[in-house]
Amino acid sequence: MPELPEVETTIRSLKTKILGRIFFDVWTDFPKQIKRPKSFNQFKKEIKGEKIQNIWRRGKNIIFTLSKNKSLLIHQKLTGHLLVGKWTFDKGAWHSEIKGPLQEKTNSYIHLLFTLDNGQMLALSDLRKFAKAELWTTRDLENSEAMKKLGPEPLEKNFSFEKFLEALGSYLKLKRKGKIKQVLMDQNIIAGIGNIYSDEILWRAKIHPFKETSKLKKQDLKNIYRFLKDVLKKSIVLKGESFSDFRTPSGEKGEFDSIRKAYQREGEKCSRCKNIIKRVKMGNRSTHFCPKCQKL
Asked: pTM higher than 0.90 for the full model?
Protein backbone atom coordinates (compact mmCIF):
# COMPACT_ATOMS: atom_id res chain seq x y z
CA MET A 1 0.00 0.00 0.00
CA PRO A 2 1.35 3.47 -0.80
CA GLU A 3 2.41 5.11 2.46
CA LEU A 4 3.40 8.67 3.32
CA PRO A 5 6.48 8.85 1.04
CA GLU A 6 4.63 7.41 -1.97
CA VAL A 7 1.63 9.69 -1.44
CA GLU A 8 3.86 12.74 -0.95
CA THR A 9 5.79 11.82 -4.11
CA THR A 10 2.49 11.64 -5.98
CA ILE A 11 1.32 15.01 -4.63
CA ARG A 12 4.52 16.80 -5.59
CA SER A 13 4.45 15.39 -9.11
CA LEU A 14 0.76 16.13 -9.66
CA LYS A 15 1.27 19.75 -8.62
CA THR A 16 3.75 20.24 -11.47
CA LYS A 17 1.50 18.52 -14.01
CA ILE A 18 -2.18 19.33 -13.45
CA LEU A 19 -2.53 22.15 -10.91
CA GLY A 20 -4.97 24.73 -12.31
CA ARG A 21 -6.53 22.32 -14.79
CA ILE A 22 -10.30 21.76 -15.05
CA PHE A 23 -12.10 18.41 -14.99
CA PHE A 24 -13.74 18.04 -18.39
CA ASP A 25 -15.07 14.47 -18.15
CA VAL A 26 -14.72 11.24 -16.15
CA TRP A 27 -14.97 7.53 -17.03
CA THR A 28 -15.07 4.32 -14.99
CA ASP A 29 -15.71 0.63 -15.56
CA PHE A 30 -15.99 0.04 -11.82
CA PRO A 31 -18.49 2.48 -10.24
CA LYS A 32 -18.01 0.88 -6.79
CA GLN A 33 -14.73 2.81 -6.48
CA ILE A 34 -16.83 5.97 -6.16
CA LYS A 35 -17.84 6.04 -2.50
CA ARG A 36 -19.30 9.56 -2.41
CA PRO A 37 -21.77 10.37 -3.84
CA LYS A 38 -23.14 6.83 -4.24
CA SER A 39 -24.19 7.40 -7.85
CA PHE A 40 -21.41 7.60 -10.46
CA ASN A 41 -23.67 9.74 -12.66
CA GLN A 42 -24.03 12.24 -9.82
CA PHE A 43 -20.27 12.15 -9.21
CA LYS A 44 -19.68 12.87 -12.89
CA LYS A 45 -22.21 15.69 -12.95
CA GLU A 46 -20.74 17.38 -9.87
CA ILE A 47 -17.05 17.16 -10.81
CA LYS A 48 -17.29 18.33 -14.41
CA GLY A 49 -16.15 21.94 -14.68
CA GLU A 50 -14.36 21.93 -11.32
CA LYS A 51 -10.91 23.57 -11.29
CA ILE A 52 -8.00 22.03 -9.37
CA GLN A 53 -6.90 24.80 -7.01
CA ASN A 54 -4.62 22.79 -4.73
CA ILE A 55 -3.37 19.21 -4.23
CA TRP A 56 -2.32 18.12 -0.77
CA ARG A 57 -1.96 15.14 1.51
CA ARG A 58 -3.43 14.13 4.85
CA GLY A 59 -2.01 10.82 6.04
CA LYS A 60 -2.33 8.47 3.05
CA ASN A 61 -5.15 10.50 1.47
CA ILE A 62 -4.67 12.60 -1.66
CA ILE A 63 -6.95 15.64 -1.64
CA PHE A 64 -7.74 17.92 -4.56
CA THR A 65 -9.16 21.24 -3.42
CA LEU A 66 -11.56 22.30 -6.16
CA SER A 67 -13.51 25.41 -7.05
CA LYS A 68 -17.12 25.85 -5.90
CA ASN A 69 -16.33 24.61 -2.37
CA LYS A 70 -15.66 21.01 -3.47
CA SER A 71 -12.85 18.57 -2.59
CA LEU A 72 -11.95 15.28 -4.26
CA LEU A 73 -10.37 12.66 -1.98
CA ILE A 74 -8.55 9.67 -3.43
CA HIS A 75 -7.12 6.90 -1.27
CA GLN A 76 -4.95 4.55 -3.34
CA LYS A 77 -5.32 1.65 -0.88
CA LEU A 78 -3.33 -1.52 -1.68
CA THR A 79 -2.38 -1.37 -5.37
CA GLY A 80 -3.66 1.98 -6.64
CA HIS A 81 -1.53 4.76 -8.08
CA LEU A 82 -2.35 7.94 -10.01
CA LEU A 83 -0.89 8.58 -13.45
CA VAL A 84 -0.87 11.58 -15.78
CA GLY A 85 -0.74 11.10 -19.55
CA LYS A 86 -2.91 10.41 -22.58
CA TRP A 87 -4.67 7.15 -23.32
CA THR A 88 -6.87 5.74 -26.07
CA PHE A 89 -9.55 3.13 -25.47
CA ASP A 90 -9.33 0.04 -27.69
CA LYS A 91 -10.56 -3.53 -27.32
CA GLY A 92 -11.91 -2.95 -23.83
CA ALA A 93 -8.78 -1.37 -22.34
CA TRP A 94 -6.92 1.93 -22.14
CA HIS A 95 -3.55 2.15 -23.94
CA SER A 96 -0.96 4.85 -23.28
CA GLU A 97 -0.18 7.13 -26.21
CA ILE A 98 3.08 8.07 -24.51
CA LYS A 99 5.88 5.56 -24.93
CA GLY A 100 7.94 4.55 -21.94
CA PRO A 101 7.04 3.74 -18.31
CA LEU A 102 3.32 4.48 -18.74
CA GLN A 103 3.14 1.44 -21.05
CA GLU A 104 4.34 -0.90 -18.29
CA LYS A 105 1.81 -3.60 -17.37
CA THR A 106 1.60 -2.32 -13.79
CA ASN A 107 0.26 0.98 -15.14
CA SER A 108 -2.43 -0.58 -17.33
CA TYR A 109 -5.12 -1.46 -14.76
CA ILE A 110 -7.08 1.74 -15.31
CA HIS A 111 -10.55 1.75 -13.77
CA LEU A 112 -11.06 5.49 -13.19
CA LEU A 113 -9.96 8.17 -15.65
CA PHE A 114 -10.46 11.93 -15.68
CA THR A 115 -10.09 13.99 -18.87
CA LEU A 116 -8.82 17.52 -18.24
CA ASP A 117 -9.46 20.73 -20.16
CA ASN A 118 -6.08 20.67 -21.95
CA GLY A 119 -6.47 17.09 -23.21
CA GLN A 120 -4.34 15.55 -20.48
CA MET A 121 -5.75 12.67 -18.46
CA LEU A 122 -5.51 11.71 -14.80
CA ALA A 123 -5.83 7.94 -14.42
CA LEU A 124 -6.12 5.63 -11.44
CA SER A 125 -4.43 2.29 -12.15
CA ASP A 126 -5.48 -0.25 -9.55
CA LEU A 127 -4.97 -3.99 -10.01
CA ARG A 128 -7.01 -5.04 -6.96
CA LYS A 129 -9.65 -2.30 -7.32
CA PHE A 130 -9.59 -1.42 -3.60
CA ALA A 131 -8.88 2.31 -4.13
CA LYS A 132 -11.63 4.82 -3.52
CA ALA A 133 -12.72 8.27 -4.69
CA GLU A 134 -14.98 10.61 -2.75
CA LEU A 135 -16.36 14.02 -3.70
CA TRP A 136 -17.12 16.23 -0.70
CA THR A 137 -17.98 19.80 0.05
CA THR A 138 -14.70 21.16 1.40
CA ARG A 139 -16.20 22.07 4.76
CA ASP A 140 -17.79 18.63 5.24
CA LEU A 141 -14.48 16.93 4.48
CA GLU A 142 -12.59 19.12 6.93
CA ASN A 143 -15.16 18.35 9.62
CA SER A 144 -15.50 14.65 8.81
CA GLU A 145 -14.84 12.10 11.54
CA ALA A 146 -12.22 10.34 9.38
CA MET A 147 -10.13 13.52 9.00
CA LYS A 148 -10.48 14.57 12.63
CA LYS A 149 -9.36 11.17 13.91
CA LEU A 150 -6.07 11.15 11.99
CA GLY A 151 -2.98 11.59 14.10
CA PRO A 152 -0.31 14.28 13.61
CA GLU A 153 1.79 14.48 10.46
CA PRO A 154 5.29 13.20 11.34
CA LEU A 155 7.14 15.48 8.93
CA GLU A 156 5.51 18.73 10.00
CA LYS A 157 7.87 21.16 11.73
CA ASN A 158 5.81 21.12 14.91
CA PHE A 159 6.07 17.32 15.25
CA SER A 160 8.64 17.49 18.02
CA PHE A 161 9.91 14.65 20.18
CA GLU A 162 7.52 15.87 22.89
CA LYS A 163 4.60 15.66 20.46
CA PHE A 164 5.74 12.17 19.47
CA LEU A 165 5.69 11.12 23.14
CA GLU A 166 2.26 12.72 23.54
CA ALA A 167 0.93 10.68 20.59
CA LEU A 168 2.29 7.44 22.06
CA GLY A 169 0.90 8.36 25.44
CA SER A 170 -2.60 8.88 24.05
CA TYR A 171 -2.46 5.36 22.59
CA LEU A 172 -1.39 3.80 25.88
CA LYS A 173 -4.13 5.63 27.77
CA LEU A 174 -6.73 4.12 25.45
CA LYS A 175 -5.32 0.61 25.09
CA ARG A 176 -2.77 0.31 27.93
CA LYS A 177 -0.74 -2.17 25.90
CA GLY A 178 0.58 -1.98 22.37
CA LYS A 179 3.48 -3.42 20.42
CA ILE A 180 5.57 -0.61 19.00
CA LYS A 181 5.01 -1.62 15.36
CA GLN A 182 1.25 -1.62 15.87
CA VAL A 183 1.45 1.82 17.45
CA LEU A 184 3.51 3.26 14.59
CA MET A 185 1.00 1.94 12.04
CA ASP A 186 -2.07 3.26 13.87
CA GLN A 187 -3.27 6.16 11.69
CA ASN A 188 -5.04 7.76 14.65
CA ILE A 189 -1.71 8.03 16.50
CA ILE A 190 0.66 9.07 13.70
CA ALA A 191 -0.60 9.59 10.13
CA GLY A 192 1.00 7.97 7.10
CA ILE A 193 3.18 5.11 8.34
CA GLY A 194 2.35 1.53 7.30
CA ASN A 195 3.95 -1.88 7.06
CA ILE A 196 6.96 -0.93 4.95
CA TYR A 197 8.25 2.05 6.88
CA SER A 198 7.48 0.73 10.36
CA ASP A 199 9.81 -2.21 9.58
CA GLU A 200 12.48 0.13 8.20
CA ILE A 201 12.28 2.58 11.10
CA LEU A 202 12.51 -0.13 13.76
CA TRP A 203 15.41 -1.91 12.02
CA ARG A 204 17.42 1.30 12.05
CA ALA A 205 16.47 2.04 15.65
CA LYS A 206 17.39 -1.56 16.65
CA ILE A 207 13.98 -2.09 18.27
CA HIS A 208 12.09 -5.39 18.08
CA PRO A 209 8.66 -4.81 16.45
CA PHE A 210 6.93 -6.87 19.18
CA LYS A 211 8.41 -4.76 22.00
CA GLU A 212 5.71 -3.34 24.27
CA THR A 213 5.68 0.44 23.84
CA SER A 214 5.29 1.01 27.58
CA LYS A 215 8.57 -0.86 28.20
CA LEU A 216 10.71 1.21 25.84
CA LYS A 217 13.40 3.38 27.39
CA LYS A 218 13.61 7.09 26.61
CA GLN A 219 16.67 6.55 24.43
CA ASP A 220 14.79 3.86 22.46
CA LEU A 221 12.00 6.36 21.85
CA LYS A 222 14.50 9.03 20.80
CA ASN A 223 16.00 6.61 18.28
CA ILE A 224 12.58 5.72 16.86
CA TYR A 225 11.69 9.41 16.57
CA ARG A 226 14.99 10.18 14.84
CA PHE A 227 14.77 7.36 12.30
CA LEU A 228 11.06 7.91 11.72
CA LYS A 229 11.83 11.33 10.29
CA ASP A 230 15.04 10.21 8.61
CA VAL A 231 13.52 7.22 6.77
CA LEU A 232 10.44 9.09 5.56
CA LYS A 233 12.48 12.04 4.28
CA LYS A 234 14.98 9.80 2.48
CA SER A 235 12.18 7.82 0.84
CA ILE A 236 10.55 11.01 -0.46
CA VAL A 237 13.88 12.06 -2.00
CA LEU A 238 14.04 8.60 -3.65
CA LYS A 239 10.38 8.88 -4.78
CA GLY A 240 9.09 6.01 -2.68
CA GLU A 241 9.18 2.22 -2.78
CA SER A 242 8.17 0.35 -5.96
CA PHE A 243 9.03 -3.31 -5.38
CA SER A 244 5.26 -3.86 -5.72
CA ASP A 245 2.66 -1.77 -7.58
CA PHE A 246 3.44 1.85 -6.71
CA ARG A 247 4.58 4.11 -9.55
CA THR A 248 4.98 7.88 -9.81
CA PRO A 249 2.46 9.86 -11.93
CA SER A 250 4.93 9.55 -14.82
CA GLY A 251 4.73 5.77 -14.52
CA GLU A 252 8.26 5.38 -13.12
CA LYS A 253 9.48 3.35 -10.18
CA GLY A 254 10.64 4.89 -6.92
CA GLU A 255 14.15 4.07 -5.74
CA PHE A 256 13.79 3.44 -1.98
CA ASP A 257 14.47 -0.22 -2.74
CA SER A 258 18.16 0.69 -3.02
CA ILE A 259 18.31 1.40 0.74
CA ARG A 260 15.58 -0.96 2.04
CA LYS A 261 17.03 -2.91 4.99
CA ALA A 262 14.30 -5.10 6.48
CA TYR A 263 10.95 -5.10 4.71
CA GLN A 264 10.64 -8.12 2.36
CA ARG A 265 14.26 -9.11 3.11
CA GLU A 266 13.27 -12.44 4.66
CA GLY A 267 16.07 -15.02 4.39
CA GLU A 268 18.65 -12.40 3.40
CA LYS A 269 21.65 -11.38 5.50
CA CYS A 270 21.18 -8.35 7.72
CA SER A 271 23.36 -5.60 6.23
CA ARG A 272 24.48 -4.62 9.72
CA CYS A 273 25.31 -7.90 11.54
CA LYS A 274 25.00 -10.54 8.74
CA ASN A 275 22.40 -12.52 10.68
CA ILE A 276 19.36 -13.68 8.69
CA ILE A 277 16.34 -11.38 8.44
CA LYS A 278 13.23 -13.07 9.80
CA ARG A 279 9.56 -12.70 8.86
CA VAL A 280 6.73 -13.33 11.33
CA LYS A 281 3.04 -12.49 11.45
CA MET A 282 1.67 -9.68 13.57
CA GLY A 283 -2.07 -10.01 13.22
CA ASN A 284 -2.61 -10.33 9.48
CA ARG A 285 0.56 -8.41 8.58
CA SER A 286 4.05 -9.69 7.83
CA THR A 287 6.77 -8.19 9.99
CA HIS A 288 10.46 -8.26 9.06
CA PHE A 289 13.33 -7.78 11.50
CA CYS A 290 16.81 -8.98 12.47
CA PRO A 291 16.57 -11.18 15.60
CA LYS A 292 20.17 -10.33 16.55
CA CYS A 293 20.09 -6.55 16.07
CA GLN A 294 16.52 -6.16 17.28
CA LYS A 295 16.32 -8.23 20.43
CA LEU A 296 13.02 -8.56 22.27
From this structure: yes
